[in-house]
Each structure stands twice: as C-alpha cells, then as structure tokens.
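pasting for the record
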Amino acid sequence: MPPKKRILSSFVMFDVVYEDGSQSSNRKVPASELTGLDGDMPAQAIIEAQDREIGLASGRPRGKIKQIIRTPAKPAPRAA
C-alpha cells in the first residue's frame, strides 16, 4: 500500500502572547508568507496588521505582542 500523501495547509496557526499577559490562540498566517530564510519572523508583522484591523473594527486596540509561538499540531486520530 502506498503511503498517504500529506495535505499541505494554506495557513500556519500561531498562539500570541501580549505584554499585558493576555493570549490569543490559533491566529492564521498564510503559509506562502513564511517561505524563505526568515522562517516565522514575517508572522509577527502579519499578526500586528491583523490586530490593527481588529482594533479599528472593535474600537479597542490590542496591546503590544510579547511572543508568538506556532500552535502545536494536533495528533492524528488512532485507528481502532
């Protein structure tokens, strides 16, 4: 039986920790923006832009980002 093909996702998920201690989970960043030698560095600028848009829409600006971390992948379901 041939091995299963891996499905490539068009987004990478990140967890964001803000300087005030609040946290935002599963923030989407296009995978195409993370190709190259910079790794995950461009993700912070993209998430900051998303935060500005959210702040304008809600009227409550987000705090400064302290740290971003890739959301761990969920383990595949085990066959019975």
